[in-house]
Structure formats: structure tokens, C-alpha cells
Amino acid sequence: MKRSFLYIVCLMLLQFGFAQNKLSWQGYFSFNEIKDISEGATAVFAASENALFSKNATSNLLTTTTTVEGLSGQTISAVYHSEAFKKTIVGYENGLLIVINETDGTLLKKVDIINKQLPSNLKKINHFMEHNGLVYVSCDFGIVQFNLTTSQFGDTYFIGENGVEISVKQTAFFNGFIFAATSSGIRRANSTSPNLIDFSQWPAINNGEWSSIETLDAELIAINTTGNIHRYNSNTFVGFLQLQQPSTDMRAVNNSLFITTPNTIFVYNNQMVLSRQISNTQVLSDKLNFSCATSVDDLIYIGTKENGLFSGTLSSGSVFENNTPKGPTRNNIFSVDVTPNSLWAVYGDYDLFYNPYNLDSYGISKYSNLAWLNIPYEEVLDAKSITRIVVNPSNENQVYASSFFSGLLKIENDVPTFLFDYTNSGLETLTTEGPTYFDVRINGAAFDKSGNLWVTNSRIKNGLKVLRTSGQWQTYPISTILDNPEATNFSNIAIDKNSTKWIGTSKDGVVGFNESLNTFKKMTFGADAGNLPTTDVRAVAVDTKNQLWIGTTKGLRVLSNVNNFQSENQLKANPIIIVEEDLAQELLYEQFITAIVVDGANNKWIGTADSGVFMVSPNGQETKYHFTINNSPLPSNVVNDIKINSATGEVFIATNKGMVSFKGIATDANDDLSNVYIYPNPVRPGFSGTVKIAGLIDKANVKITDIEGNLVHETTAEGGTIEWDTSAFGKYKVASGVYMIFIAAQDGGETKVKKVMIIR
């Protein structure tokens, strides 16, 4: 019981720490899919899938808000900015409501709708309408009042027949009545009624399904789901215009009405006379899909489903400018690769059974020098479903992308130059679907120390291939170790110090291959066959102690020494047994593991399919971090990939709802002590973090003394960076002053002396 209490306390402290230490996290989100927009006096506010940004029309200042600042990773469905209260309200599909206070920058999460005893699929927030300090929140079950002064919810109105739930798409205030466009008619109620929670106060005045309703000065306009625009005539709504497509949005701003359809924006004056019509070809191309539109002064802002936010002059046919913050093409990043100078991301995908059913056409993204380069599908030589990307460690300008349908794409100097497929290389198409079906499924890829690129070619007889530095392809007979090679899919490849290739498979566990020995071995399910919990292996990684870490769909295993490949006929992996609550249990028991990566201090970062990220100690006995959507800026617990910048220690975590990075301290060790540096320096009053001493060599001894030579801290580096909490051996914080840092190599052959100033 005592352990449980301490765990809860530690978890609370961990959550508080991350809330306070936002500098440890950075977001890399796509803002391309605009869900909703709202306008202020001088700015527009745009909501993408799970992030928010604003553009000031006067200063052109662009501001972003993501999970790092406190937003949820769930999908946004509506946004509204109250100019009078200086608050922005964000609504989500799951019913969460977040209030952003512009005056002090605070974020307040309201879970009242989430906590309602209703089916989860009825809690989506569709629209906000402000009137007299109250916001009427349209939801898929009814209407909820929200008080902008107190930031508290009020009454809930279930306005369907006999008080049942009904999907309310939008509300409007007109001549003292509240009107609601619903999935079952337009309903209205007298706003002065003392009993609006009584469903009988909300009679239907029109039948049918309605998508929107809006007040335009002296007019009340509504649109049904077939795109027929109606005008209210004091008793009922009468149709008078038919759109060619159903509308996606309608709103009244500054005496004008903006009606959005997927390919056209219609702007009407307050007499319902068309004053401007904008097609998607005028903005970009006929492939563009509009989601919403509004205006600030003479600027019209148009949200799109795939290319972000555009703006142009409302009164003339100006050129439209893209106002979207730079980011990756989309949030569902499937795989990344990281070098000291760049980050690459790809978006291909496959399901649980390795079926690339979504043959995406999203291209490839690169982040370097604080800027994004998005290579569109039109430039990747028709490579579909790109699932992996790897940078040549000896030449950062050479990159290879694995397509799980089209082959292997070569990229040089950021330009796709060649696609290896079954017609021009040693790669092969699967044959189980018939002679006219061509499908080259390349996934895991890794460079060996000689610069050769090893790749896996799934669902063929011999799917282990190598592209030599000479440009020649070679195939190895992996079918000799597989039970059914034409039905086998491969995950990733790890190469150890002996040049043994370790390959995860879908049906045969882990296969090891050593080229010099010309030998295949495998570990699979069962105590006598390798001791894996399942044959489906999704991740393999070799650590600095020559252990092989194996992530499966049902847990974790570790091969104690990769050298066993040469000495043992049957390799065997074992679980890591930890003790919690005085009970022995298996680390990550039954977890679906998607990624494993080893940092410079030999810690393991482990991604899962539904439980976020675990960072465990070198031997796995201590879980140092467990990041989830509840205690960190992680936007989703579905982790697709993890990679680490070896120079900075930054850990990049790609999920199905966006990518974030955690600025860890475990950098790779340096070759010498010439680049040792300390940060922050000086340590100023109020600083609550740790001092980092970076640029170290492995096993370096670090001693810290005060100016008189009294020792206050001593440690040995595991990797390239250590932390000091500015205390004297953890007992008390040291006083203001200059502190000496003495660094020595393990053999004493190299030393370095640095200083750090602490100001209390």
C-alpha cells in the first residue's frame, strides 16, 4: 500500500514537473488540415487537427499553440474567439473544452461534457455561439451553456422529441429567440423562458436535416444538408437558393455572409446579394477542398482540408497567400530518421497484418536549420506507402526511403533521383496475387559499417537484400530459415558490432544473419525455440553492452549477448523481471511494442501501440519515464517510431497524431574533451532545472568543487552529458559563487577544467 501511495505521489510530481518545464519539449505538428476558424478585431484564429494558430492581420505575427503549451492531442472540432472577453475556446470531438485566456496565457481544461453519462460518440462539440456573456455550445446530444465570465458550464438542453438527444449543428440568436439547426429539424425557444431545459420549449418549425443557421443583420439564414439555402419569414424557413454542393460552413461577419462548399466560397451582403465568389482554382488548384472562411477587415481567410489557411483581399481578385505555420505534411508520421543536422519523416502505413491498404501519396518531409522541406508525392517518382527512411551515416546528403509497395527510393541532395524496383534491381515483386500484380514491399533498412545498405523485401522467397557500395545488388537465402517466406513480412533491421544482421519478422520471430559465417539463426515462440512470447516481432535494437532488445506484439525480450550467435545453436532471449508491490513481474508484459531505440547512456526508449513511451534504465530494472497523454505533451499514446539525435540527446517521438521531442541529456560520447561546454552558465536566480555538462567522453570522471576546493559533486559519465542539480551531494543547494569542474578521462590521459557561476 505504501508503494502504491509513493507511486501516485511520484506520478503527480512528474506531471507537475512537465507542466512547469515546457522547455524540455518541442512540438512538430502539421497545421494543414483546418477544422475551424474564428475572427477577432485584428487577428484570425485557426484550429487544425489538434493544434491552434493565430495570424495578426496588422503585424503578421504568427503564434502557435500545441500540446506542448497544454492543448489536448484529441481531434479539434470547433474554435471560437471572444473579443469581448479576450478568450479563445477550443472544442473537441470527444467533448473536451479548453479555454485560453489571452490576458495571462493560461489554459483551462473543462471535462464536464466528457463526464456526462452519455454515449461517447454523442459528445462532439460542433459550434459556439456567444450572446450576452454566454456561449451556447452545440453538441451531438444537444446544447450546453458556458459562462465566459466564470468559465463554468450552466444548463444543458436536450431538445429532441420527448427530451431525447439530438445532434445540434449550429445555433443563432434572432429577435429574442434561440434557433437550433439539428439533424431533425430547426427548433427554436424564447430566450427569456425560465425553463429552457424543458424540451417542450423547443418546438420544431421546420423538418428535415440542417447543417447550419446564422443571423445576418435583419435576416435569419439556414442551410439544409442538401445545400438548399433558406430564409426565415417570421413563421418558417423558405428555400430560395440551391448550392451545387452541400455547405461545409456558414457564418456572418461584418454585415457579410460567408458560405463555404468544398470547392467554392460565396460571399453575400446583408441583402443576400452575391458580392464575391471564389473557386478553389483561384486559390490553388481544383484538388483543394475548402472547410471554412471568414474575414478580418478587408482580408478573407479560407481554411482548407489539406493545405492550411489562405488569405486574400476581400474586395478584389487578389493573389492568395498561404498563412500556415511550417510543419510536416501531416500528423500521422509513421517513421523518422534523425542525424545531428536533420530530421526526416515519412507517412506510409500498414495495418496489423502488414497490409498497405492506404496507398498514401503524402511524399516525404525534412526538417533542418529550423525549416521544413516537404517533398510532395508528385516528386517521389510514384513511390507509394513509404514506411521507412534511412540516412547514409557517411553521407548525410544521401537518403533512402523504403516503399511498402513500390521499392526503394534514392534521394540525393534533397531530390528523389531513382526508384529501385523489380525491373531495375535485385528487388522482387510478390507473386501470390497473380502474374499481373506488381508489389515490391521494402521495409526495414540499415547501413553496415562498410557503407552497404541492407533491406528487407517482404513476401517473396528470399527477402534479405543488400545494395553494395559498388551499386550491385545481392540476395541471401533467408528462405532456408523461414517457415513460409511468401507469407512473411519484415519489420526493422539492427546490425551489431560483429556485422550480424538482426531482423524482425511477422511469423518467425527474430532472424539473425552473419555474412562472414554465412549462417542464419532464429529465435521464435516457445521455451526451446527462442523463448519469445510471440512470433510477431516489430522492433529490434542492439545496445552498447551488446545485448539485443526485442519488441513483440506481446511484450519484451532480451538476448543477453549478441556474441552468442557464434557459439550457440539455439539462441534464447529472456524477459526482464522487475519487482513491484513485492511481486515479481515481467517488464512490459503483453505490451504491443512498436519501437526501441538506445540513447547515449544505454537507456532504452520503448514505444507502444497504446501506452505511450517508456524510458528504462540500461538493465531495464528502473522505469525512469513513462510518457502518456496524461502526464506529458505526447499527443497520442499510439507511438509509431522513436529516434534520437546522438549529438544533442533530443528524443523524437512520432505518433499517429503528431510528433514531439523530449530534450534528454543522454548524448553519444565524444572522442575527446575539446568540445566540453556547460549550460546554463551562469545559473541565475529562480532557475529550477539542472546544470548540464556536455561534450564529454565515455567514462569521464567529473568532480565539482567550490572555489576553495571543497568537493560538492562527483560522478562518472555514461555517454556525452551529465546533470548536476546544484546541490552538495544531494543534501542542500550550494551557495552563490564560482564552482570548478574538473574532468578527466578514465585512463587519466586527457583532462579539462571548466567553471560555472551560480547566482542565488
Descriptive terms for the model:
disordered N terminus; 3 helices; four-stranded antiparallel beta sheet; mainly beta; 760 residues; eight-stranded antiparallel beta sheet
Radius of gyration: 30 Å
Report the principal-axis shape: globular
What percentage of residues falls in helices of 4 or more residues? under 10%
Task: Sketch the major β-sheet.
Answer: 8 strands, antiparallel
Oligomer state of the chains in this structure: single chain
The number of distinct β-strands equals 64
Protein name: T9SS type A sorting domain-containing protein
Signal peptide: 1-21
Domain PorZ N-terminal beta-propeller: 44-202
Pfam families: PorZ_N_b_propeller (PF21544)
